[in-house]
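Researcher: Batch entry, complex prediction.
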Amino acid sequence: MGRPAGVSGADTMRAIRKAAISRIYRHGFEAMNLRDLAADVNLRLGSLYNHVPQKQEFLASLLEAIMSELLADLDSRMAGLHDPLERLLRFVRFHIEWHTARKEETFIGNMELRSLTPAQYESVAEKRKQYEGHLRAILADGAKAGLWRLDDLHVTTLALLSLLTGISTWYRADGRLSQERLIRIYRRLTQRLVGLPAPARKSATPVARKRSAARKVRAA
Amino acid sequence: MGRPAGVSGADTMRAIRKAAISRIYRHGFEAMNLRDLAADVNLRLGSLYNHVPQKQEFLASLLEAIMSELLADLDSRMAGLHDPLERLLRFVRFHIEWHTARKEETFIGNMELRSLTPAQYESVAEKRKQYEGHLRAILADGAKAGLWRLDDLHVTTLALLSLLTGISTWYRADGRLSQERLIRIYRRLTQRLVGLPAPARKSATPVARKRSAARKVRAA
Amino acid sequence: MGRPAGVSGADTMRAIRKAAISRIYRHGFEAMNLRDLAADVNLRLGSLYNHVPQKQEFLASLLEAIMSELLADLDSRMAGLHDPLERLLRFVRFHIEWHTARKEETFIGNMELRSLTPAQYESVAEKRKQYEGHLRAILADGAKAGLWRLDDLHVTTLALLSLLTGISTWYRADGRLSQERLIRIYRRLTQRLVGLPAPARKSATPVARKRSAARKVRAA
Amino acid sequence: MGRPAGVSGADTMRAIRKAAISRIYRHGFEAMNLRDLAADVNLRLGSLYNHVPQKQEFLASLLEAIMSELLADLDSRMAGLHDPLERLLRFVRFHIEWHTARKEETFIGNMELRSLTPAQYESVAEKRKQYEGHLRAILADGAKAGLWRLDDLHVTTLALLSLLTGISTWYRADGRLSQERLIRIYRRLTQRLVGLPAPARKSATPVARKRSAARKVRAA
DNA sequence: GATGAATGAGTGTTCATTCAT
DNA sequence: CATGAATGAACACTCATTCAT
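Model: Structure tokens for the complex:
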């Protein structure tokens, strides 16, 4: 009953987190019971408590980790960009890539906030605000630079975020649309939303100047 | 221990539904227990079962009722409109009015679908599809009529719906923005999303033709 | 699975208390598990919670009830007595009768205080202080009246109480000594403790005055 | 992860015993868990098992050790005394000194007997009987020598022991009474209990013979 | 000897549901 | 229709104990 050979605690922990995310995604945090979670990673219930001392705490740590990773990834993907439009389009790409590649994480990151205690909520919400703040800064910078005009910066930020995040409610990797196609569509919607002339479709763009802009942007 | 004077069964049922919606909104369906629900309407647990024979069934009936009402209200509010733009703007107004006036209902209508059994889900999802279909028809009609051009009808529909529904995650009746202001902002965002030139602000509208169009629209 | 015919909640509660006292007496509060307790009164575990919502609270209520009864019984048994010696001897009789008739209750009343939360402890300890206070008042009154002389009122009170309560650690109803014999012995010990000449044994009492006093007292 | 420098196995064992006694004293044996105990002595739970292979056995060894030490100390303190009164007063002093200096040990020595298995209980109870037997012998010798008269030797022994042991339930080193004062008071109570005329207070002793006796005795 | 990890048998508690009254 | 009581199936969590490293 001691420790089996060749098993490290860190590996087990990773497996538990993964299994938990999957279960929470499918049935919700309340509906996830620790016996099943233990079974997922081939542990007996009692053993799980060496890694997960508290279900409630565990949820918080999970959401915190997700948000921290999201923010860190965002920062690294935005590094070096300055032009607001480039940043906006890069943000859209990043958001969609992250939210489709890590559909489960982002879904529970949005849905399970209400299962947190107030103190835990505060901490996670703070990180969400940071993410939102990043997008708002982009929109504000573009407005200041005269690239676009917004009726209400805050509302537009929230609206754009809702629009993008909504993807995770219906996206399926094996669906009709490739991820690249999805990104292209949502970039156009985003540009429309901030009041930019939609970048022309490849075949329908008459104006050369616009085309080159579009090309530059697609590279982002 | 019979029924107290002056209380009708229908009143009790209404009170139960209301209390349930509030509890589900705040903590989720799984976290709502029937003892507390009974207490909310001054009943003992046993008595609740005269009105709510099955928790699971109850959720389904709640969601069905919400969706049915939503669809019925939508139909009545859209009656007589033909012009796609008018219909689109009316849809936005309707959606926001409903989703702010009945924030709790719409929130759980979106969140608690996963707590349904597959059969129940099917039935409620069908109604959501109808609602989504209504919007898609508007967008399709406008495109057909040459009022706007969409890259992808389905995606735009879902995107617009996400954008609008997102309001319910942050809207507060006592917030910074009046409901009318909110509607105005979201109408502009919607118009941008479908590729219409944003209707000018009151003070900034130079072209008479556009003004009259806007006026007509505001009346919707 | 509803309520069986002819079963009242009060009866069940009484049975639960009795069974709990017996179990706590035999194995201690921590060692009493609610599954076994339920079985003692022919209930399933879940049903027990209709009567005992909280193990910890239950212990407190048990100890409070025991102490309240003890105090009430004491008051009624001391009613009408004024002479300190009579009161002292009556107290001894009362204490022994109660502590032998209700050996289990008094045992846990002394032993399980440490299983209480601080707040619960406070409340029960208050009642113990009252009981102790009653004895102290008797001893003080006798001293004031010149019936006996004590080195230290407080210590003597505690010492006498320890002496009397100690009985419950070894007393057995089927033991060598009848209860009446026990009471006689402890009355003599008590009288010695406060410095009274021990009342003479029946056959060994030479002084008439003392005999009549003893007779009076035995009647107490 | 070997043993830290400067720590011997015997030291660790001593620390564990001490920590265990403290925990058992405060919350009882059942409520002491080995994880906390390990933490008290800066060990991880697994390491504790190198020293304490069995919780139940550990309790027995603890109680046995306490009783053995008690008996050994008693013997050494009573060595050379013959006069029953001197022995009785010495016993009182010894008992109080031990039970105040080692309040925790004696408390659990009395309270945790019921947590022992029957076999363990037998062994520890045997030692308690020896202690009790020691006192009984003193009382019997005094009675035989005509120093005092007892109604019932066994009951008086138990009563005196209860009276003395009771101190440990309320004694506090920082309390109102010095230990010496306590011993003086309890010696007088003891003398009264066996029917000796209470030794007079310093200022109130009229009879020289008694004074000298008292002086002799105080030296015990 | 110290440690991290695993394990099984509990342990108090919750909860939807049933039913005689 | 209201109520108190009963029930079984969970559930999160605890804990003494074991053992490879």
